[in-house]
Design brief:
alpha/beta, 9 strands, 20 helices, 6% strand, globular, three-stranded mixed sheet
Length: 559
């Protein structure tokens, strides 16, 4: 009995198979629920794997766009240019990117570094945005933000994988938003000296962006000032004065520092043409409204207008409808929360903190970037969608607000992000790059061989072929952009945007190429000018017609 009794006690304590079943069922339910909520993140990881697998064709096709290739090409040529050379960047000056490119141009493997750097910048910005969403709204919200924003379309990758398409300005915007989220709950406990020091540090970080991009004012500075005003109005205690001072000082340092950087770049011989725009006319307001909606869809890969009625077209339609729904519902939810907010009390609300700062900043960014796009003539077509990428990011940043309304909304938003990610994965597999008529790598290789055979290292072409061919031939041919001299169309003139003055100086006793691409628009070179004389050699490479002249065509350019 003394031996058997403990055994009977153990049998009573040991769970039976019947008692283990509810525990197993509960564990299965918990695992399935966890898998459901984690599904957007898992699909985002799959999307990232597909992009990495297709990265080489993606980045190659991106630099077939001369607007994208201009940054690395001009930075490389600047290192070989003689003293007193003048460099004119694009309408978006991208001084910050130019300084980085010049600083790294002498490194071994610089081309590979330049290929991946914009993507790494963007991923760091996405990680910082996810962190701020975590601090403001919670873990699930951070996962939703990261999953929704990483799955951009082909045009979104073009904007975020290049140096001069405003992607870096979005990262600066994220830095300012994250700084507000971090500091707001801590400001009351910090001394004025620390607050001022942090403001100066943030301002110095933003100064290169202020110098490089007019959109920094709309995307980051104005939203930060709006957030400071909202904190001063709704907040309580010493936090209000400290946050207002922090934002005002950091904005002033950024803008003044940006002005100093611009002056220094001008003294160095690097400048940019003024980019002027006007408020939209009443007759074009409807056009701008449609263009705004199309541009939001275009960034995310959902511009379905004119798409073929095949599986890829239906996937594009699905993505576009999800983006439009997200923009509309986010704006509606922000308005709903504002209308349901408690009445302001004179002593302020002590609960105002990171969540309040996050929502106000990204709401102001969404409204300001959309208004600037809608109410001006800056964007003339879908390529101008790069002017609204901050609004696209702001929509993703605010998307978790919908999921916080209740279980039904949480399920719907999770399913929507999953469907969006699935569509992005399929589109990336089916068509990883934007369609383009630009000459590809094979034509660039054949052109380089032809030029080597003809003992030519310098060429001239229309803008939309020049820099992408220079980059694609790995600088074996320095192709300078030229345009027909309007309005007479007689002779060729040097391109005044994205230009380096040393390219206009003719070289003695040097042959040169003239490359004509009938498929390139606008400002395409349509044929030979009789004043150039007879070429000594000619060939056709794909759609390109290539002529060799026994002199440097720069001598024939019209001043």
């Amino acid at each position: 009995m003394s031996v058997g009794a403990p055994a009977r006690a153990d049998n009573r304590l040991r769970p039976t198979a019947r008692s283990r079943r509810p525990r197993r069922a509960a564990a299965i339910v918990r695992n399935r629920r966890t898998l459901l909520w984690a599904a957007p993140g898992l699909l985002a990881v799959v999307y990232g794997g597909v992009v990495l697998a297709e990265f080489h064709p993606i980045i190659t096709s991106i630099y077939l766009n001369s607007d994208a290739a201009a940054a690395p090409v001009l930075a490389h040529l600047a290192g070989q240019a003689p003293a007193a050379t003048k460099i004119v960047l694009g309408n978006h000056p991208w001084y910050e990117a130019f300084l980085f490119l010049r600083a790294t141009s002498a490194l071994p493997g610089y081309r590979q570094l330049w290929d991946v750097t914009p993507m790494l910048w963007s991923l760091c910005g996405l990680a910082l945005l996810s962190w701020s969403a975590l601090r403001a709204l919670g873990r699930f919200s951070a996962m939703l933000v990261a999953s929704a924003l990483v799955c951009v379309g082909s045009f979104g990758r073009l904007a975020f994988f290049t140096f001069d398409w405003h992607g870096l300005t979005v990262v600066h915007t994220v830095v300012i938003g994250a700084a507000l989220v971090w500091l707001t709950p801590r400001a009351a406990g910090l001394s004025w000296l620390r607050v001022v020091g942090l403001a100066i540090a943030l301002g110095l970080i933003g100064a290169p962006a202020a110098a490089s991009d007019q959109l920094f004012l709309v995307w980051a500075v104005i939203p930060s000032l709006v957030t400071a005003c909202a904190l001063a109005w709704r907040g309580s205690g010493p936090m209000r004065a400290r946050m207002v001072a922090f934002v005002v000082i950091s904005a002033a340092v950024s803008l003044d520092g940006g002005t100093l950087i611009v002056q220094a770049m001008h003294a160095w011989g690097v400048s940019a043409p003024p980019f002027s725009f006007t408020l939209v006319s009443s007759g074009n307001l409807l056009h701008n409204l449609v263009l705004t909606l199309e541009s939001y869809m275009y960034v995310g890969g959902g511009d379905f207008f004119g798409a073929s009625a095949n599986l890829l077209g239906w996937a594009t339609l699905t993505t576009g409808l999800l983006i439009l729904a997200a923009v509309a519902l986010v704006l509606s939810e922000v308005r709903r929360q504002a209308s349901r907010a408690s009445q302001r009390v004179p002593t302020g609300d002590r609960r105002v903190g990171a969540r309040f700062a996050y929502i106000v900043f990204w709401t102001a960014c969404l409204i300001a970037s959309t208004a600037a796009f809608l109410l001006t003539d800056a964007a003339q077509g879908l390529q101008g969608a790069r002017y609204i990428v901050a609004g696209y990011v702001a929509t993703g940043a605010l998307l978790p607000l919908l999921a916080r309304r209740g279980l039904g909304w949480r399920i719907a938003v999770t399913a929507g992000v999953c469907l969006f990610a699935l569509s992005a994965i399929y589109q990336t597999i089916a068509q990883p790059t934007l369609p383009t008529a630009a000459p590809g790598p094979r034509q660039a290789t054949l052109l380089a061989r032809y030029a080597q055979r003809e003992h030519v290292t310098r060429g001239y072409a229309g803008y939309w072929d020049a820099y992408d061919l220079t980059w694609a031939t790995n600088f074996r041919i320095d192709v300078t952009p030229v345009i027909p001299c309007h309005p007479s169309d007689h002779g060729l003139c040097s391109n005044q945007i994205a230009n380096i003055s040393s390219a206009d100086a003719p070289r003695a006793h040097a042959r040169s190429l003239l490359i004509i691409d009938p498929d390139a628009t606008p400002d395409a070179l349509t044929g030979l000018d009789p004043s150039f004389g007879r070429p000594i050699s000619a060939t056709t490479i794909g759609q390109l017609r290539v002529y060799v002249f026994p002199y440097d065509i720069a001598a024939k350019l019209v001043p």
